[in-house]
């Protein structure tokens, strides 16, 4: 159970960063 | 054992990141002095190509390290090389940071080229990040090259030098000693894969003639997500390689995967820098040469996935 929680926490953090980066990159293409 | 001679490949490719970064930084600085947007774009393109070519340079280096550290190396004439593990490790440690920085610099350079298409010029923050990262990369690459050169020419070596703050051993230990690390990276590698392939497939299918009512420019908008996916996969892939070098370095399936990745990665540059795809308007079909590039890209990405999946089955231990 601890392993699953750790993996989930890592994924949440990394994917939040990825989503923020993707959003910022997408917006940088606006005039 | 792969038919590829990794030390030869490494000796050939190791010059690209070092010399290439010098050229890219030189062109970028010259573009600021001359206020030339064309020169600026060329410098960003060179940086992207160099970042891509650094992937096989790094991987062949890890493969060469594995060969050199075996008690009875398969290459009998290592000559006057210094094969002490410490000296090789210093070179590898320096390469880890230099490679990571160059990949980041290449990512920002790609974003600058994408912005050039969309808003006519790279963003200021993007250009600043490229300039900073590429200059830092230049310093890190010079160190890496010096430490690598000293393996080949120990007579001019300085044994007091250290490789870098982040060591390959520390990275490998981190991945191997935390039970959550490998499975988390594996999940991220797959998320990166679908993010990348999902976007690349849709964009290239449009160029092949599907969804012709959509203008190419609308789909071009999605490309940063693909590059983000590629970024996730290069970093997680690098961690896999550092954590289990013996598994990957000599695996012919891995070499084929990386070969396909170079073609497929070049497609991401093609899709934003070349005029052919960009001018495909709503309702229009892409020219034949653009269609051929789209087909090649799809086949290459499928190849990357295929040979990645085949790693355990086509490798030495299969």
Question: Notable features of this structure?
Answer:
heterodimer; A: 31 residues; mainly alpha; 1 helix; 84% helix; B: 318 residues; 77% helix
Of all protein chain pairs, which has the greatest interface, and how many residues does each chain bring to it?
A-B, 16 and 21 residues
Residue share in helices of chain B? over 70%
The radius of gyration computed from the alpha-carbon positions of chain B, rounded to a whole number of angstroms, is 20 Å
Main beta sheet strand tally, sense and closure of chain B: none
What is the rounded Rg of chain A? 14 Å
Mean pLDDT score of chain A? 93
Taken from the alpha-carbon principal axes, the silhouette of chain A is rod-shaped
How many helices of chain B in DSSP terms?
14
Detail the poorly predicted runs of chain A: none
Mean pLDDT of chain B: 92
Task: Tell how many strands the DSSP assignment of chain A holds.
Answer: 0
Q: How much β-strand is present in the residues of chain A? A: under 5%
What would you call the structural class of chain A? mainly alpha
- Low-confidence parts of chain B lasting 5 or more residues at pLDDT below 50? none
**Tally of helical segments of chain A:** 1
Order of helices and strands of chain A: H
Written overview of the protein:
The complex is a heterodimer of chains A (31) and B (318). Chain A has one helix spanning 2-27. Chain A is an all-alpha fold. Chain A is rod-shaped, with a radius of gyration of 14 Å. The model of chain A has no long low-confidence stretch (mean pLDDT 93). Chain B is mainly α and 318 residues long. Chain B is 77% helix and 0% strand. Chain B is globular and about 65 Å long. The model of chain B has no long low-confidence stretch (mean pLDDT 92). Chains A and B meet through helix 1 of A and helix 4, helix 7 and helix 9 of B.
């Amino acid at each position: 159970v601890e392993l699953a929680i750790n993996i989930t926490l890592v994924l949440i953090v990394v994917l939040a960063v990825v989503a923020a980066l993707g959003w910022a990159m997408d917006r940088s293409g606006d005039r | 054992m792969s038919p590829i001679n990794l030390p030869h490949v490494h000796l050939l490719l190791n010059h690209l990141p070092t010399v290439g970064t010098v050229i890219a930084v030189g062109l970028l600085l010259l573009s600021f002095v001359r206020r030339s947007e064309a020169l600026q774009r060329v410098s960003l393109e060179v940086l992207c190509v160099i970042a891509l070519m650094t992937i096989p340079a790094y991987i062949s280096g890890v493969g060469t390290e594995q060969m050199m550290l075996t008690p009875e190396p398969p290459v009998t004439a290592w000559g006057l090389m210094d094969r002490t593990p410490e000296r090789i490790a210093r070179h590898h440690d320096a390469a880890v940071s230099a490679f990571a920085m160059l990949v980041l610099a290449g990512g920002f350079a790609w974003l600058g080229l994408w912005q050039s298409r969309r808003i006519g010029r790279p963003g200021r923050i993007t250009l600043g990040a490229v300039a900073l990262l590429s200059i830092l990369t230049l310093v890190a690459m010079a160190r890496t090259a010096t430490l690598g050169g000293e393996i080949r020419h120990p007579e001019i070596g300085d044994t007091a030098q250290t490789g870098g703050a982040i060591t390959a051993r520390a990275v490998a230990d981190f991945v191997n000693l935390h039970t959550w690390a490998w499975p988390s990276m594996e999940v991220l590698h797959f998320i990166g894969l679908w993010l990348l392939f999902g976007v690349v497939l849709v964009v290239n299918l449009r160029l092949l003639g599907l969804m012709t009512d959509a203008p190419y420019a609308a789909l071009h908008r999605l490309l940063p997500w693909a590059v983000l996916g590629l970024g996730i996969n290069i970093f997680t892939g690098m961690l896999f390689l550092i954590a289990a070098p013996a598994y990957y370095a000599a695996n012919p399936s891995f070499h084929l995967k990386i070969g396909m990745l170079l073609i497929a990665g070049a497609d991401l540059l093609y899709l934003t820098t070349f005029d052919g795809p960009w001018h495909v308007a709503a309702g229009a079909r892409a020219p034949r040469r653009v269609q051929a590039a789209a087909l090649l890209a799809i086949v290459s990405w499928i190849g990357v996935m295929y040979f990645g999946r085949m790693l355990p089955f086509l490798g030495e231990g299969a």
